[in-house]
Design goal:
It holds the Pfam family TrkA_C. Helices cover about 25% and strands about 25% of the residues. It is of the alpha/beta class.
């Protein structure tokens, strides 16, 4: 997979390292020439320039990339890069970093953003997960706020324990996409029996979230 990352700061660099370790082709676009001399990113292709400029993205041949990640510390830049990637180059998938929660509403398909990643929201989700096992935690907003990824850690006294996934009546517009048990993820099936401590990951809609919370909290044997 070919991935272009706008911004060589701590976030962009961390993403690049992970992608390279997983054998993906990565290009970083940044205005600071000295960034390209970093020893910890020697397997990354560099392009020095402003990722908001169409000419720079043309030099990058952005139409050949599968994913564009806008990871700068400036929300305006991240929006512009995402919009150009979608509208001018037809990039299949864009991921935009949201630095300020007040701007999150703009990171939608109108600006070419497929997935908005809010660092404050993710940090809040992790805190909530740590202190509120047994509550549904929203992790990511996908596709202009119409779809969410959420996680639920099953408490060890939950009424869910011992039930198979197929015996639970899940709300409409809700899909279980993965379960993590003993630090190992696996795809769900109707025959899987729920255990205490399971982390269940859902794709759901804002409208279905309330019903999902009720289901997770109020199931009786």
């Amino acid at each position: 997979m070919k991935v272009m990352i706008a911004g060589a700061g701590s976030v962009g660099s961390s993403i690049a390292r992970e992608l390279v370790l997983n054998s993906h082709q990565v290009m970083i676009v940044d205005q600071k020439a000295e960034m390209a001399e970093r020893a910890d990113l020697d397997n990354v292709q560099w392009l020095i320039g402003d990722a908001c400029e169409l000419a720079v993205l043309q030099r990058a041949k952005l139409e050949e990339f599968d994913v564009v990640v806008s990871a700068t510390g400036d929300d305006k830049v991240n929006l512009v890069v995402s919009l150009l990637a979608k509208s001018e180059f037809g990039v299949r998938r864009t991921v935009g970093r949201v630095n300020h929660p007040k701007n999150e509403w703009m990171f939608d398909d109108a600006w070419g953003v497929d997935v908005a990643v809010s660092t404050p929201r993710l940090m809040t989700a992790l805190v909530e997960e740590a202190v509120e096992v047994g509550d549904l935690v929203r992790l990511l907003t996908l596709k202009s706020g119409e779809v969410h990824m959420a996680e639920f850690t099953v408490p060890h006294d939950s009424e869910l324990i011992g039930r198979t996934l197929g015996r639970v009546t899940w709300p409409h517009d809700t899909t279980i996409v993965a379960i993590v048990r003993d630090k190992a993820p696996f795809p769900p099936s109707d025959d899987d029996v729920i255990e205490g401590g399971d982390e269940i990951f859902f794709i759901t809609t804002p409208e279905a979230e309330a019903s999902l919370r009720t289901t997770l909290r109020g199931i009786k044997r």
